[in-house]
Amino acid sequence: MKGPQRSCKSETAPAQPGLLGTILPHDVESCHRLVRRIGERRTASAQGSDTVPATLETMPPAASSGGLLRVLGTGFGLAVTVGGTVGLGILRAPGEVAVQLPDARLIVGVWALGGLYALLGALSVAELGTLAGRSGGFYVFARRALGLYPGFVVGWSDWLAACGSAAATALVLGEYAGRLVPSLADHAVLIALSALLGFGLLQGRGLRWGSRTQGLTSTVKALALLGLVVCCFAVAGPRVPPSPSGPAVPAGLALLAALVVALQAVVYTFDGWYAPLYFAGEVRQLGRAIPRAMIGGVLLVTAIYLLVNLALLAVVPLPQLAGHSLAVGAAAEAVFGSGGETVTGVLAILILLSVLNACTLTAPRVLFAMSADGFFVRRAAAVNRGGTPWVALWASIAAAAGFVLSGTFKQVLAVLAFFMVINYASAFIAVFVLRRREPGAARPYRAWGYPWSTSLVLAGSAAFLMAAVASDTRNSLWALALLALSYPVYRLLRPARPDDGTDPPNADRTEPFPEVTGVSKR
Predict the structure, then answer these.
(1) Which of 32, 203, 251, 377 gives a 20 to 30 Å CA spacing to 356?
(2) 175 near 188, Cβ under 8 Å?
(3) Cα angle 52, 58, 128; round to 5
(4) How far apart are alpha carbons 83 and 77 in whole angstroms?
(5) What is the pLDDT of residues 415-448, one digit of tens each?
(6) What is the Cα gyration radius of the chain?
(7) The pTM is what?
């Protein structure tokens, strides 16, 4: 059932006799300014620009935030950052990093460097979250700063990646459940579908249910990982010096190449540092909550990752750690013996439940924002009384279930990994574009260290993109082919206006006070 919609008309006091005669000269001037702004917008539209003028774009379309509840705070932002970022990557990536950098100091250093990259990204992109004030993540920034077609590409790739991640998470959850309970071993797909359905029903109850579940699962996950860290340090013996016969540490250009490959694996485990941006239209005290959640979340994740790696190095010899497909499993076996496999399975399930909740929260927000702008059926912008975009939610659950049943999520995620780096870069570019185009726009938070910090992470994104193309040329070519095919699809789905077909209908809305008329504050 569609949530109550408040129109501008319903929020305006009824006309009173004699009110027209009380209009002052400055009110007339305000009307003239509004007419001039509308005229400027018509002129820009007639020129065929895909970019919405800043004067109107600074106000989020009312339909794009209608019915969403501003009930979230910094605590939720921290929970969704930890929940959406700390996944199975931290269980596996340490072994990959140790192959490239067989030295404990280099291993810890590259994880700290990955945390610094994510922190600089958060310091920059948090500005966009407080500036836009719309839920939807990278799509919102790309559309506003770069135009409709870049927004289309970023939005659909981000949504498909979120649905594919949900499918992968649910299926791996089923596989680990089968390891813990042998009778479930042949039912991984059924467990995955049941998990998706269960989280869909949970999110459908309302935003508060999803946010509380995120807080609970993220806390349990963090405590479980920290418990393992404490156990590792408790049983760790005296440090054994590295064996001279072990793999040699690379030097020169070989060290630089190894560092890039290792850092690429680390950065992928930090993917999710931007999670609070998907809920910008549902956050109270936006100017404080978004930066605090993003920066604090990255610091928490970095601390967890550094502690886990130090714990692994304390109990697992470096030659054994290098190349291990499940490094945390090796540490659990060293600490708990034969019970290590069970501990690893329980830990993995706790991690996966938190990630799956985050995926089923974020994916619908992307589709919701695109639907409000005309890139999907308008019905998908409907919000129920609990503040959940319910049509977008079930469309996302259905897409994830389709990936599970078809078994194509691995190929989809491999191709969309190319777009993940592009989405990063588009957000960093958007900071520069909007600083130049909208210098007078209200910015409750301004990027720390701008422009140098933003330039640094943008350069890092470009380097990761080149590394991704070099390391996986086949899927990169598929990604380029998909990008080429996206333009005809965009032309078909392009939101049309009656006059020139340039901008989506919602971009033409000029209701005052969109924060009040478009968002229910319960």
Answers:
(1) 377
(2) yes
(3) 100
(4) 10
(5) 878 888 889 999 999 999 999 999 999 899 999 9
(6) 24
(7) 0.80
Q: Give the list of residues 6+ apart from residue 312 with CB closer than 8 angstroms, or none.
A: 94, 232, 321, 327, 328, 330, 331
| Model pLDDT for residues 180-239, shown as the tens digit of each residue | 999 998 899 999 999 999 999 999 999 999 999 999 999 999 999 999 999 999 987 666
122-140 tens-digit pLDDT: 999 999 999 988 999 999 9
Specify the residue for token string 């600490």.
335
Nearest Cα residue to 282 out of 483, 136, 428, 453: 136
* CA atoms of 366 and 349, how far apart (whole Å): 26
User: What is the C-alpha to C-alpha distance for residues 368 and 389, in angstroms, rounded to an integer?
Assistant: 6
In angstroms, the CA 68 to CA 96 distance is: 42
Name the pLDDT band for 504 (thresholds 50, 70, 90). Answer: very low
DSSP helix/strand/coil, 272: coil
From residue 34, give the alpha-carbon distance in Å to each of 38, 46, 513: 6, 19, 14
| Buried b / exposed e along 419-437 (16+ C-beta atoms within 10 A) | bbbbbbbbbbbbbbbbbee
The one-character DSSP state at 17 is: T
Phi-psi region of 407 (alpha: psi -120 to 50; beta: other; left: phi over 0): left
Q: DSSP letter at 250?
A: P
